[in-house]
Structures are given as C-alpha cells and as structure tokens.
Amino acid sequence: MKIGQHSLGSGHPCYIIAELSANHGGEFQIAADTIRAMKEAGADAVKLQTYTADTLTIASDKPPFKITGGTLWDGKTLHELYHEAFMPWDWQPKLQALATELGLDFFSTPFDDSAVDLLEGMNVPAHKIASFEMIDHPLLRKVASTGKPIIMSTGMASLEEIEESLEVLRKANSGPVALLKCTSAYPADPTEMNLLTIQDMQRRFGVPIGLSDHTMGHTVPVAAVALGACIIEKHFILDRTQGGPDSTFSMEPREFREMVDAIRVVEQALGKPDNYVISEKEAKSKAFRRSLFAVKDIQAGESFTHDNVRCIRPGHGLHPREFDRVLTSKAATSIERGTPLQIEHLS
User: What is the pLDDT confidence band of residue 79, given thresholds at 50, 70 and 90?
Assistant: First the structure.
C-alpha cells in the first residue's frame, strides 16, 4: 500500500499522521502554522476533516441531539459542536498546497458524498474513514469508487462490523485498505486500549494495521509500534491553551517530536525476528566473556583440578564447555598462574 511517496506496511517505516481536526480555532493562519509545526515535529502526513455541521447532523435541541454522558462536550448539541469544530472548505486547497510544498502527504476524512467530491477535485492521495462513519455503507461505497487507498478507523466496532465494512469496500472494488485500532473515547484511558488486538487484526485481515490514538502522551503509540502497528495517527495542536473541542487530548509540537523520535528508535531496535547475528560492537565484547585460566602455577605432568583451573573472565582461554575435558587431563608443560588455557597445554 502506498500513499504519496510513502509505502505502508511491514518492512517500511511507521507512517505518522498528524490530525489537525478542530485545532485551528477558526483561523486560517493557525491552521497554516500548525501544518508547518507538524513538518518540524516529524510527521509524514497531515490529515483534515471535511464536513459541515449540516452534512453531519441537523440543528435540533431534541434529546437525541444533546451531548451527555460525561464527555468533553456535554451540554452542546451535535450541530453546535460540529459548527464550532468544522474547517471552511475553501481553506483546504490552500492548506494542501502548503503541505505539498513542505513535503507532507495531505488527505482528509470525508463525511458525505459532497466532501468526497471536493477532495477528489483536489486529487488527494488517499481517504480516511472515521470510526463513527465506518458503518455508513453508502459512504464506504462512495469512497471506494475513487479507487484511492483507504485508511479506516475501527473505534466502537465489533469484529463482525469490521468484517462487514471490509466486505462492502471489497465488493465496491476499493483501493488498498489499512485499518486503525482505535478506542473512541476522548481522551482514552490506556486500560481500554487492548493493543494486543493489533496482532490479531494483522492475522485476520491481512492488511496494514495501525493505531488512531486518543490517549495522553506517547507511551501507547510507541508500544503499538513495538507490537507491529505501521501507522500512527495523533491529534496535533500548537498550544493546548488555545482551547477548542479537541485540545485536551492533542499533542503539542514538542510532545509529537518526542513521540516520533521514540518510534524511530523502536523501529531500529526491533530488527528482524530471525536475526541471531552478533553485531560488530557486540562481537568486541566477547573478549570479556568467561574462559578457562590457570589460577595457580602448574607443573608439567600435574593434573588439572578445580583448585588450579577456574572459569573466569576474560575470554582468552578455552571455552567453558572444555572444563570437563581439562579436568581429565594433565599439563603438557609448566603453566604460570594467569595463563589462559589452550589445547596445547593438555596432554
């Protein structure tokens, strides 16, 4: 699977997506400055969300449209929240041009057919399906019809729903698909992440698997990479004090940079599962392993014993596996204390 200049999947560097979401505060300059900061922080891609309040819901204060349940947005209506958070659509081509200039991949999450059409007019290299929309089969078919790579989050989804959504995309002849493990809580608690599911998803679905993460800090995404995640998506904000619907669980530039650096270190450390070759630096340490030494002066013809031979550091003498053989032998020559034993010392 490839997005822009980046190949995604096993054997390739983790693809790190910075999610702008609502962290623009309604100001184009903040959005542009945020994208520049994403590049400096090591992101591979910037992702937006393409919707309006009216493409997501209707303006109503009836109980089903009121947000409750202990979320960050309790008391608002859905329409109010989405109106506050949405990004004007005429900004998006301009932000795309900036991201392209900076060498960042640029794509978005469309929430209805008109958003897909807008993004296709911009020729984005991929589309993202949000967790809440992965059960919207008509939208899935619309996105699939573009033939572009699809990254789909799986928050709240049962195994059966994931399988069903993948089947919808396959039947619609979609482009290649990647799945993101996701816990749709804002912020998410690490105890609810269940990261081992990443490995099961790899086995079950045979597609690139990543993590869309809403926990605080970078511990969880770094652990996900160690478990095989090849995509990490994190919300990004210039400064959490600027506020906004997503500010509390978004990463500031320094934090994002620390996450990226930690992921790159983990990638280097993972290596290959069947590689038992000793590194060049490690090979130099072999000289300090244990080996067999004369620890007393030994006369020619004298028997070797536990008293005059020991297995000690460094590693210049016979391998410890030869200890039993040595104990059944006699000294072929006189041996001074501190001499590393060699085969020629045995008779």
Answer: very high
Beta-carbon neighbour count of residue 344 at 10 Å? 8
Distance separating alpha carbons of residues 204 and 258, to the nearest angstrom: 32
Stated pTM of the model: 0.89
Q: What is the DSSP string of 187-256?
A: SPPGGG--TTHHHHHHHHH-S-EEEEE-SSSSHHHHHHHHTT--EEEEEB-S-GGG--TTGGGPBPHHHH
CATH number (domain holding residue 99): 3.20.20.70
- What single-letter amino acid sits at 103? G
Tokens coding 42 = 């090591």
Nearest CA-CA partner of 312 in 327, 325, 295: 295
* Tens digit of each residue's pLDDT (9 = 90 or more) over 37-65: 999 999 999 999 999 999 999 999 999 99
Contact 49, 111 (CB under 8 A): yes
- Gap between the Cα atoms of 251 and 34, Å rounded: 11
Domain boundary, last residue among 218, 244, 270: 270
In what helix (H) or strand (E) does residue 109 lie, and over which residues does it extend? strand 105-110
Name the 3-class secondary structure at 99: helix
Q: 256: which 2 tokens? A: 């994002």
